[in-house]
Amino acid sequence: MTVTVSSFRTDFPAFANTTTYPDAAVTFWLNLSANLLSVDKWGNLFDYGTELFIAHNLVLEAQANKASAAGGVPGVASGLTSSEAVDKVSVSYDTASAAVEGAGNWNLTTYGQRYIQLARLVGAGGLQL
User: Fold this and answer.
1) Would you state the pLDDT for residue 37?
2) CB under 8 Å to 20, separation ≥6 — which residues?
């Protein structure tokens, strides 16, 4: 594996803020991914899969930290928002078209959606047309 905290932040600059995304958190998810992802299955996509795994989990962790800082309970699970209303203004979203079927919590971030799509493809074997 060639992913490091530094290379992750270079490849995913949205995670450059070390206050929101501390090195220790990136390292934690990096180390965990080494136990969960197989280089034999992922091949040369292993580093990218690892980075998507880290990004997905960092976003969920940042959401939990934000809730906790606001006095809420960290880690409360919620699904995709399909509609919101404030006073007389409301908005609805077609969550079915934005969600990956059967992807569960991977649908909670765009990184997770990319990860699960790729995870379903890698190691699938050859394709004959």
Assistant:
1) 94
2) 62, 65
Instruction: Return d(Cα 7, Cα 87) in angstroms, integer.
Output: 45
In this predicted model, what pLDDT tens digit does every residue of 23-60 receive, in sequence order?
999 999 999 999 999 999 999 999 999 999 999 999 99
What is the rounded distance in angstroms from the CA atom of residue 45 to the CA atom of residue 43?
5
Sign of CA dihedral 67, 69, 73, 74: positive
Residue the block writes with tokens 């930290």: 65
- 97 has a pLDDT exceeding 60: no
Convert the pLDDT of each residue in 64-74 to its tens digit: 888 777 776 66
pLDDT of 98 reads 59
C-alpha 83/C-alpha 60 separation (Å) is: 21
**Dihedral, 117, 92, 84, 19 alpha carbons, nearest 10:** 30
DSSP 32-97: HHHHH--HHHHGGGHHHHHHHHHHHHHHHHHHHHHHHHTTS-TT-------EEEETTEEEE--HHH
